């Protein structure tokens, strides 16, 4: 029986590269043995999610999400609740493309990404469930929510990775902690924190070392709680992230593995961010669905049971340096490579 593939693509993602490459991508997947068709998403809510659910129920063998992390999230939400789920491929065409980075899929060339699917290598990926919604990369509350919502989609499309860094520098002076109650596998956090993160991969907003020991398929989230809201201390932690992920042992960070998390607000509203979008308000229960979706990936480049750092592009290296310089100017102090903060060099 002929295998069937449906490409669900967002025509406005990133730099709109898919429009130019679609015919060649269709040919690559046809040669890989799939009768392939394409669906262009519309501005209607849940366009990608609804189409993914429809073709999954129709018995398609493969769904390819072509777009940014938001398109991937929608497709996952369309198939995750089903008992019979098709395999899933990814063609990055968005801003940071965190999920593609974790799967070692080329992020600047849609045609090369399609060739990864044609190779036929897959990973049984964990995904997260938050209430009735699903996520593939990150959930959180606090600063992360404010930061992501504060970057307009047009700005992200034009400036990509740099947009997150610049907006982060702008927002740092407004950080304030909120009281939160977090229950995880082996403990409870009860106190004030700037944010909590639940990560499934090692790449969040372009930062690869936030979760340096992430695993794709172990059934565990990485829970990170940033306890401090002090501007200088947060800048110290950020430089530790950029310099090898040394933040994980810092006492201002709670860093643990858990298969489940219950997040409750204490005194004020706590919005929940799911894969970069508003996902409702706490209280909320998060569950890890172990090895729930079979994803095509460059498995030759992914160490078994773990993710290692992938090479950054020159633009991303420049963006990281620009971020450090921006926050130095913001607070008038020099941030050293070891995470220390000292006086700005005097003339």
> In oligomeric terms, what are we looking at?
single chain
Task: Report the biggest beta sheet as strand number plus sense, adding barrel if it closes.
Answer: 6 strands, antiparallel
Taking strands numbered 1, 2, ... along the chain, how are they ordered across the largest sheet? Answer: 6-5-16-13-8-9
Low-confidence runs = 155-162, 306-312, 335-347
Shape: globular
Instruction: Note the total helix count.
Output: 10
Structural class: alpha+beta
Mean pLDDT: 81
> Which percent range fits the helix content?
25-40%
Order of helices and strands: EHEHEHEHHEEEHHHEEEEHEEEEEHEE
Give the N-to-C terminal Cα separation.
74 Å
What radius of gyration results from the CA coordinates?
20 Å
Beta strand count: 18
Q: How large is the share of residues in beta strands?
A: 25-35%
Task: State the gist of this model.
The chain has 347 residues and is an alpha+beta fold.
Overview of this protein structure:
The structure is a single chain. This protein has 347 residues and is α+β, with helices and mostly antiparallel strands. It has ten helices and 18 strands. It has helices at 18-31, 47-57, 69-79, 98-102, 110-119, 143-149, 153-159, 161-171, 231-242, 314-331, and strands spanning 3-9, 34-40, 62-67, 87-92, 122-130, 133-135, 138-142, 178-184, 187-193, 195-199, 221-226, 253-258, 260-265, 271-274, 277-281, 284-296, 333-335, 341-343. The strands form four sheets. It has a six-stranded antiparallel beta sheet, with helices on one face. It has a six-stranded antiparallel beta sheet with strand order 12-11-10-7-14-15, covered by helices on one side. It has a four-stranded parallel beta sheet with strand order 2-1-3-4, sandwiched between helices. Helix 2 runs parallel beside helix 3 (69-79), helix 8 (161-171) runs parallel beside helix 10 (314-331) and helix 9 runs antiparallel to helix 10. The longest helix is centred in the last third of the chain and has 18 residues, at 314-331. The protein is globular. The relative contact order is 0.15.
